[in-house]
Amino acid sequence: MSAFSPPHLFHNARIVDPATGRDGRGGVLVRAGIIVDVGPHLVSGSGPEGAQETDCGGSVLAPGLVDLRAFVGEPGAEHRETLKTASEAAAAGGVTTIVCMPETNPPIDEPAIVDFVLRRARDTAIVHVHPAAALTKQLNGRELTEIGLLREAGAVAFTDGTRSVTNAQVLRRAMTYARDFDALVINHVEDPDLVGQGVMNEGARASLLGLHGIPREAETIMLERDIRLARLTGARYHAALISCADSVEIVRNAKNSGLPVTCGVSINNLTLNELDIGDYRTFLRLSPPLRDEVDRQAVIAALAEGVIDVIVSDHNPQDVETKRQPFAEAENGALGLETMLSAGLRLVQTGQLTLSRLLAALSHNPASLIGQPGGALAAGKPADLILLDIDYPYIVDKMKLHSKSKNSPFDEARLTGKVLKTYIAGRLIYEYDEQ
């Protein structure tokens, strides 16, 4: 927003600020793209002379969401997704900042590629885009990237995306290197050897469907190893996705020991379980796989407790050729940017999470992890805002989604809660149209 733009007063809103726990009626005053005041005293006509006013109609006004894990095809797989289409999907889902994974072609393993993504996003994306750089060159798990130079170029975290760094010595060196730059190391905690030919959660359901299962130990063994390396090196470590009760206990113990360890969970593992696969629904072939209901309830409880820090969309567009296959041959991955918040609101509606806790995991916590100023409604913070009707019912239609690909696990699902408007620096970038 231009410094010469008039102030903008949002009033008659339910203000939910996960950074402070504020949840009550009031307004937000924005000037030059920055929040300058928040509180119940901001009502219609209380702004400075010439201020633009938006009556929020009692809807929720909250910080824009920050998604730590989105796979975008650009460069190299623009047929699946581009920075432009991903950002449009993000805006429709209330996501104002996305961290794009390095699994592109070429991968984001050199400063020049970081610069390309930042420039391309600046020219085509309507939300903030921050690249996560590769931990190892060509994502091969062997040779480290130049973490210092990549961080200087603008990378906000370091990860090999869906590829786990299986060599403990390589990961130890990466963590030691990253520690000196206070860089965040993110690892996908799934041992590929234990995964083997597995395509869904190991158990009775997999046997019934005749599919190879993935044991929970594929996740927990690697998670245990990574946390021991975090203790050895002192690096900031983030487990990209956890999905089962055993992993929750491992992370809880690490945090109780004072280690700089955090973790995330996919919206899919929070709101779906292995039974949702039904008759081989390939849109629900995911990594980590959907677990049973006991594990799902365990990760929900861990999120409410604060053991799990962030919720991610795990947005991974796939085209028809890779998903219209037998379940065992389909690629992992599902869309998530546009439906993440609505799906998460299911847990608020069932009373398992407060709205503030959900929004903290979707905005304030991930922003803090990558050192970005979003995720809060406070004076001096950027006016990246969403206006949300938490009671708006709708049916997901994949053909109306903004992503290029259509592999949504929530296709035809009934969801409640819709983003009405999304703002970046006080500027409207998305408005819901019922048509």
How would you characterize this protein structure?
By secondary structure, this protein is α/β, with parallel strands linked by helices. It has one domain (64-369): Metal-dependent hydrolases (TIM Barrel, Alpha-Beta Barrel). 30% of the residues lie in helices and 23% in strands. The chain contains 13 helices and 17 strands. Strands 1, 2, 3, 4, 5, 15, 16 and 17 form an 8-stranded mixed sheet that branches. The chain has a 4-stranded parallel sheet with strand order 9-12-13-14. Strand 10, helix 6 (204-209) and strand 11 (213-214) form a beta-alpha-beta unit. Helix 2 (111-124) runs parallel beside helix 3 (147-153) and helix 4 packs across helix 7 (217-233). It is globular and about 65 Å long. The model has no long low-confidence stretch (mean pLDDT 96).
Question: Topology of this protein?
Answer:
Blueprint: E1 8-17, E2 22-31, E3 34-39, E4 52-55, E5 60-63, E6 65-70, H1 83-92, E7 95-100, H2 111-124, E8 128-131, H3 147-153, H4 168-179, E9 184-187, H5 192-195, E10 200-201, H6 204-209, E11 213-214, H7 217-233, E12 236-239, H8 245-256, E13 261-266, H9 267-271, H10 293-305, E14 310-312, H11 320-323, H12 340-349, H13 355-369, E15 385-395, E16 414-424, E17 427-431
Parallel strand pairs: 1-4, 1-5, 6-7, 7-8, 9-12, 10-11, 12-13, 13-14
Antiparallel strand pairs: 1-2, 2-3, 5-15, 15-16, 16-17
Helix pairs in contact: 2-3, 4-7, 7-8
Instruction: Give me the strand/helix succession.
Output: EEEEEEHEHEHHEHEHEHEHEHHEHHHEEE
Q: Roughly what fraction of the amino acids lie in strands?
A: 15-25%
* Whole-number count of domains: 1
What would the average pLDDT be, to the nearest integer? 96
Radius of gyration: 21 Å
Report low-confidence residues grouped into runs of 5 or more.
Answer: none
CATH topology descriptor: TIM Barrel
Major β-sheet profile: 8 strands, mixed
Number of helices: 13
Count every beta strand, where a strand is a DSSP E run of 2 or more residues: 17
Q: How many angstroms does the end-to-end distance come to? A: 28 Å
The top level CATH class name: Alpha Beta
- Helix/strand class: alpha/beta
Shape: globular
The CATH architecture assignment turns out to be: Alpha-Beta Barrel
Q: CATH homologous superfamily?
A: Metal-dependent hydrolases
Q: Helical residue percent?
A: 25-40%
What multimeric state do the chains show? single chain
